[in-house]
Amino acid sequence: MVFTAVQIADILEGEIEGDPEIAVHKLAKIEEGEKGSLTFLANPKYTSYIYTTKASITIVNKDFIPEQKLQTTLIKVDDAYKSFSKLLEYYNEVKNNKVGIEEPVFKTETVTYGANFYLGAFSYLGNKVRIGDNVKIYPNAYIGDNVSIGDNVVIFAGAKIYSETVIGNNCVVHSGVVIGADGFGFTPNKNGEFSKVPQTGNVILEDNVDVGAGTTIDRATLGSTILRKGVKLDNQIQIAHNVEIGENTVIAAQTGIAGSTKIGKRCMIGGQVGIVGHIVIGDNVRIQAQSGIGRNVKDNEVLQGSPALNYGEYNKSYVHFKNLPKIINRIDQLDKGTHGEQHK
């Protein structure tokens, strides 16, 4: 797609300094900008690059005053970083604004869908699937029976949405996601073998939830596995059966949460965190990467380590742990000195 400086300035409500008709068709870092590219300058430490960049258009703050001649056309805005982000959102909307049903696909006669619907080739829609307006389902997606999908949802290629799942408005489900697979429920019998416990619940994603590529969210044994409004999941996360995650909590990649754990609002959980089942984590909790959580966590705690300790206590303990060989050596020297005195 090609945009002129005038078109971009209209979108961002910016002011042009330079050629209003110059066009761009790609994005670039300011230090790597070349003809036909659009870039931005928000961090002052990159200011020197604006005098050497070959980018055709650069978005800058209104208070930027060049000290040398520029090769690039400027678009001046109140906040260059926010404006560039807004432009990325607009670009994605335009790029992904597909409409219509490609062939071949399979959908039952009981499927209902709203305006501006897109369904990619080789997708499957089961019985009584209900889909809202402005929904985009990319190729090779599987949508099981009785799934409900709200408005403005994007489901990328290869995602698998099992039966009875409920997806709210403005959600994004990335490629390779599996929502609604059976929870890990087995019970041992007298022979030491394991029998499967039927998983009869579902998964609910409330509004504005993002699910990263390769993430799996298991259906509940009974009731629902629930991700509340605004939850953001990174790639390759495992959410087990009957887990509940509170509003606006964000979780980084490779984290695993065991069954029936409840996580509060506005939590931030780092990568590769392991959380046991049947515990409660409060609101506004911060968990550092690679921590292991095996107990209930109160509101506002900051944790690190495995098993996780209070963040401040962990750092103090780590200083001693790092110095442990020196401490042991000093103890050995003292011990030798003591024994030497005893032999005199």
UniProtKB/TrEMBL annotation:
One Pfam match, given by its short name, reads LpxD
Catalytic residues in the record? 241
Copy the pathway line from the protein's UniProt record.
Bacterial outer membrane biogenesis; LPS lipid A biosynthesis
Which residue intervals define the domain UDP-3-O-[3-hydroxymyristoyl] glucosamine N-acyltransferase non-repeat region in the entry? Answer: 22-89
Keyword tRNA-binding appears in the UniProt entry: no
The organism's superkingdom is given as Bacteria
Q: Does the keyword Transferase apply?
A: yes
- Biological processes, Gene Ontology terms: lipid A biosynthetic process
Q: What is its EC number?
A: 2.3.1.191
User: Cellular component terms, GO, for this chain's entry?
Assistant: membrane
- Enumerate the catalysed reactions: a UDP-3-O-[(3R)-3-hydroxyacyl]-alpha-D-glucosamine + a (3R)-hydroxyacyl-[ACP] = a UDP-2-N,3-O-bis[(3R)-3-hydroxyacyl]-alpha-D-glucosamine + holo-[ACP] + H(+)
Please state what class of enzyme this protein is: transferase
Q: Which Gene3D superfamilies match?
A: Hexapeptide repeat proteins (2.160.10.10), MurE/MurF, N-terminal domain (3.40.1390.10)
**Sorted UniProt keywords:** Acyltransferase, Lipid A biosynthesis, Lipid biosynthesis, Lipid metabolism, Repeat, Transferase
| GO MF term list | N-acyltransferase activity; UDP-3-O-[(3R)-3-hydroxyacyl]-glucosamine N-acyltransferase activity
What binding partners and quaternary form does the record give?
Homotrimer.
Sequence similarity:
Belongs to the transferase hexapeptide repeat family. LpxD subfamily.
Query: So what does this one do?
Result: Catalyzes the N-acylation of UDP-3-O-acylglucosamine using 3-hydroxyacyl-ACP as the acyl donor. Is involved in the biosynthesis of lipid A, a phosphorylated glycolipid that anchors the lipopolysaccharide to the outer membrane of the cell.
UniProt-recorded name of the protein? UDP-3-O-acylglucosamine N-acyltransferase
Whose protein is this, by species? Kriegella aquimaris
